[in-house]
Design goal:
CATH topology of the largest domain: Beta-Lactamase
Strand content: 15-25%
CATH superfamily of the largest domain: PAS domain
Distance between the termini: 55 Å
Helix content: 40-55%
Largest sheet: 5 strands, antiparallel
Order of helices and strands: HHEEHEEEHHHHEHEEHEEHEE
Radius of gyration: 50 Å
Number of domains: 3
Number of helices: 10
Length: 491
Amino acid sequence: MRTRPLSLRLRLALGYTAFFSVVLLLLGIGVVLAVRAALIDEIKRELAASSDLIQNDFDASNIKLADYFANPKFLDRTRPLSVEGLESPSLYVQAATTDGQVIVTSASLQRRTLPLGPELRARALAGADQIDETTLGEAPVLMLVRPLRDEQAIVGVLQVAQPLREINRTLQLLIISLAAISVLALLTALRGGAWLAARALLPVGQVAHTARQIVRAEDLAQRVPPATGSDELAQLTATVNEMLERLDTLFNSQRRFVADVSHELRTPLTAMRGNLELLRRGAARDPAALDAALAAMEREVNRLVRLASDLLLLAQAEAGVELRHEPVALDELVLEVVRDLAPLAGEVVLRPEVAEQVEVIGDRDRLKQALLNMAYNALQHTQPGGCVTIALADAGSRASLLVRDTGAGIADADLPYVFDRFFRADKARSRTVGGAGLGLAIVKWVAESHGGGVSAHSTLGQGSVFSMWLPVSPAAPYSSRPPPVGSRPPP
């Protein structure tokens, strides 16, 4: 049986609580160790002060400590050590000879003796005070061991100790208090962490809610409410909205693509079917009608071939078609395009403007196709008697291919979208006039694949200027990826 995974909010809250618990644990350990160290230092000072009193008491007595410690016959007449101010039952005092024989003890020891190992005794007899944590019976004690002097001569060892039970009891109470406080703090941290996580993840929840609504309603026009500030979640919201905008644009472009392709296919197919109906009804027996029908069908077939060719080229562009890298003389290309389009110009004046020779590195066939598309588009939108000029300009580091016409012009609102696929500035224009709206999209792809770009300028009633600029030196690396499909205004 699979367990249900924990929510992100709960995982964040638990992670925050776990981190906080580690911090509290380390802090508690630090507090306990600091308090214990402070209490131990206080006992050390008390032991040192007590040993000073005992040494002073011996010094003030009439007993010759050297004789007293050196003659075992005095051992039977020893008495429990009694120094004024040191009668506390929690203070243990013991004096021993240099060889470790206990001479005198305090009453608080009750005939017990403090442990005195040879190593500890030797270090004390060397003249240095020694601190040792040991046990008296089973009770832990802290013991100070120092040399006992008689007129500056070391005659024995003095041991002063205090039990550690009060310190241990204090530390136990401290640990219990810290544990209780920590439990309350962790519970508060858990609830606070859950609240903070829920508040921090609110934009994520809104993103998920909006995504669910989009899936259910199939409406990519919805957006996530923008988050305030500039933190990571605000950036996430902005990125998701940008992604939705791109998806909306792509889906709308796809719908328009399918609709436009369907329309573009339906128009020539309908015309061909009509001509076939005429032939079936007897037009085939009339040579003039037969020639007219065959010519019309040939035009429609050519149109379908151009549409299929353009769609295939854009599909290859999306797949990353490989471009050739070869020297291309743009001045020759301009003259060649003018010659190719001259039969199609009709009453429109088509002329070149080439002032000098310019050469770039690129794919000649693609560049010619792009220039043909720009020029053919200009011819389609220029009235008889107008003029279309194909010009070449050299700006040093880049060359520009310009196509100027004296047509009706394009509205400013439509200019940003003229290089989009299937975009038509004149929405009411018949599909029988002009191409499928793919030519300028191919121009943009070709230019950007060669490291260049495109632009369009127009004035209503005066004409338009389409420009494709290319670097004179080869752009590295060449990219055949098509430009992203731009947005377009609603119809």
